[in-house]
Protein: AcrR family transcriptional regulator
Organism: Nocardiopsis terrae
Amino acid sequence: MSAAFQLFAEHGFDNVTVAAIAERAEVGRTTFFRYFGDKQQVLFADDGAEVDRMCAYVLDKADRPLGGDLGAALTLLREAAVATRPYAALSPAHSAVLVRLLRESVDLRSRYLLTRQQRAFRLAGALTEAGADENTAVLAGHAAMACELTAMRLAEGPELFPTHVDEAYGMLHTLGN
């Protein structure tokens, strides 16, 4: 994965081939395809594990059925994001490359948005399992992803991403006040 990020940083996403990634990683193309379906998947390879940790946190920390309490559901998702942040697979340097690539490539943004939609769906499922009404769970899952997308758009570097996520959640909590 590191070899791919190095190449993407040096040449941009569109100018890097699977063969080049495999060569830099000192593996064959067949080995590459054993781990990744395509070069885009390299960028999002660990997203599933990250969502698993967030869902586990939600299920572990929900101390009561959430019902229709959107504020409680959002708070739980925010806490899950903060608690799992230290375990994020991407280093700050890789995150910076990913942000740059997403800004440069429409195809990558489309794939990223698909991964965010899948994440929102899984988080909504965890919230539902934790006793949230379906409407509340779905809205909270998508609102959490909106906070992440907002932070990505506003953060000038990966070190500022958590601050912008927290600010976006904070703005959601001011609704209705």
User: Anything to note?
Assistant: The chain has two domains: 1-42, 44-173. The chain has a mean pLDDT of 87.
